[in-house]
Amino acid sequence: MEQLAFIGLGAMGEGIAANLLQGGCPVNIVVHRNPAPVERLVKMGARRFENRCAAASASGVICMCLPNSDTVSATVDELWPALGARHLVVDLGTSSVASSRRLEKRLASLGVAFAEAPLAGGKAQAEAGELGAFVGCRDDVLARTRDILNHFCTSVQHFGPVGSGSSAKLVSNYLVLNMVRLIVETFHSADMLGIDWQKFYQIISRGSSNSVALERTVGAIVEHGDYGGYVFSVENAKKDLRYIEELSQDEGLAALGSSALNLFDEADRMGFGAHRVSELLRSEVRMRLTELMGARASRPDK
Questions:
Q1: Taking the model in full, what pTM does it have?
Q2: End-to-end CA distance of the chain, in Å?
Q3: Domain boundary residue among 145, 161, 177?
């Protein structure tokens, strides 16, 4: 199997890299400001390099699990001297459609193949090797890409050329993040009306309202008093919704509205960007959001 450089050992990256190693894939990683995941992966058989270019030079495939399109572009800038026609670059993060298309053209100037494969699932699914992948790439790149993704995904779906995979992922996130917005607003309203959250959750989770989003957002709160059950940050939600807004404008899709973006944008502006989306149900957070958004809505220019 060809050598693989893995860049981005965050919440999901470590689990993905571990599954690649367990599947027999030679994985090259880089010294990181957080040494713990690096040490754990080295013990599993990963090779450690001092910089990204060195890891890329020793590899045929480069997988990136990074937070946003700007970071992906900056990483490619850093890797540029090491890239050549033998390389395949795979972006596993949720990126802007326009940015992914630009990146493919840029890499093609060096003969480098590119695939986007944004993932469905979270940290637990990454560790269990049960993620899903929205793949966008040329047909001649698909088999090589699929061989990598099969190590940590149970569903790998090819949607077409680059741009189609990220489009599908963003539409999926549009659905999920609007569900989270509705859940936050619903439980805030329930509290204002004196409705007991635990009793309310126990009933609606038996009906059509139930979903993984409801379980992650509210389940841990009513069962354990844990507001951090949904491991997805406000700033990441806002980032994805900005990409959705960009896609909507580029494609003329009026259906992709901005209600969810407004909520997460306000939360980020108030300093809650690093909070998990389920923490928007903390009383002190939602009360401040209600006051601020109510004040904005009452302005004459709104």
A1: 0.92
A2: 58
A3: 161
